[in-house]
Structure formats: structure tokens, C-alpha cells
């Protein structure tokens, strides 16, 4: 158990819908990272927050957004969902500029 | 652009045999280097990491990795594989910028023959 929690574990929705994925970092970790794992793209960095502020952006679509709240949990919002958004979404957290600890992931299925 | 190459998509070894998983990276300077393991239906678990110093690093579960600057490689090894090691292994680099976001290789799936 990494100490990073993600909810929900599974999410099934339809095209065009909007969903929110939630992540609670390890106690004391200020950085939260979001990654997407899909069969065709592999594991890709989406976005990073540090203590409530966006720090880095990767291959994140404009339909996707994220935020980190004062209690340091983070949410990833995915809207206007397409079939190709079906993937495993991981959250990771870190306390310093090194090791990231990953949550169990949220599996999103868009039908 | 930074990239990580894991040339082997699948590797099959017999239980008790030795293992080496290859990883090459492309980056202007020496980045932070990591190996993660993902068991079926699970998240990613850190096996080991290299930041600086001794180029042979020890990790959990009996794994080790060697950083070779001249070859831009960070290969993962284990002297004797156990059936429970069957999983997918990812090599990753983190550029030493302010984000330390991870750039992953495509992964190597390890199958273990009884």
C-alpha cells in the first residue's frame, strides 16, 4: 500500500459525458501528478500540482482539467468524453523532488 | 526530446533463471532513473532509483540495476527469478527540472515458466 488513494476504482460512462476522478496523496506530500495509461499511448504524464498550484503540464487534452485543493487532495475532470479516453488513470504523490508513489488507479471505460 | 526505450516487449524466463531487462534513455544530461513494476490490475510499485553516486543500485525484491553513462542505459537485473516476479516492468526518467515528471518506457512484460 503506497498511501495514495484514488476513487472510484472503476468508472463506466457514455460518450459526451463528464467525470471526476479523485486522488488523496500520502500524508505530507505536496506534489500530485496525474498519468494516463492506455494501450496505444502507454503511460503518459498529464499534469502536476504542487501545494495547490499547477507546476507542469504534459500531454493533457483541453477537455481535461485538474485542481488541487487546500487539503492537498486533487481531482481530474474529464469532459466531452470520447471512446479513446478509456484508460487507466493514475495519481502519484511525492514529498520531495524524487520518488513518486502511485495510487491503484481509476479504470475509465467510455461506451 | 527526452525518451525512454525498452526494446523488449515480452521476455520469458524459467523460474530460477537470471533476468536482465534493458532500458535506454535519451536526455541531455543524466536524469533521475527509476524502475517500476506493475502487477496485473495493480498500480505501479517502485523497485529502485538512481540519482547519483554508486552506479549499481539495489532495490526491493532482490532486484538491482546498473547505470552506464556511456551507453545511456539503466538495465534491471535479478539473479534468480521467482514465479511471483511475473509482471510488467517500466523504466522511467525524471528530468532534473522543477517538475520531476516521469517519462516512461513502453514496458516489458515478464513471463515466468515453471
Average pLDDT level of chain A: 94
Query: Roughly what percent helix of chain B?
Result: under 10%
State which percent range the strand residues of chain B make up.
Answer: over 45%
State the major sheet of chain A: 7 strands, mixed
User: How would you describe the oligomerization state of the chains in this entry?
Assistant: heterodimer
Radius of gyration of chain A: 13 Å
Give the distance, in angstroms, between the N- and C-terminal Cα atoms of chain B: 41 Å
Distance between the termini of chain A: 31 Å
Give the DSSP E fraction of chain A (strand runs of 2 or more residues): over 45%
Give the number of helices of chain B: 0
Tally of extended strands of chain A?
11
> Can you tell me the overall shape of chain A?
globular
Outline the structure in words.
The complex is a heterodimer of chains A (111) and B (114). Chain A starts with a strand and ends with a strand. Chain A has strands spanning 5-7, 10-13, 19-24, 31-38, 42-50, 53-57, 64-68, 74-78, 87-94, 101-102, 106-110. Chain A contains no helices and eleven strands. In chain A, the strands form two sheets. In chain A, strands 2, 4, 5, 6, 9, 10 and 11 form a seven-stranded mixed sheet that branches. In chain A, strands 1-3-8-7 form a four-stranded antiparallel sheet, with no helix packed on it. In chain A, β7 (64-68) and β8 form a beta hairpin. The model of chain A has no long low-confidence stretch (mean pLDDT 94). With 114 residues, chain B is mainly β. Chain B contains no helices and twelve strands. Chain B has strands at 3-5, 10-14, 19-21, 24-26, 32-38, 44-50, 56-58, 64-68, 73-78, 87-94, 103-104, 108-113. The termini of chain B are far apart. The A-B interface holds A 2, 4, 33, 35, 42-45, 48, 55-56, 58, 90, 92, 94, 97-105 and B 32, 34, 36, 42-46, 49, 51, 90, 94, 96-107.
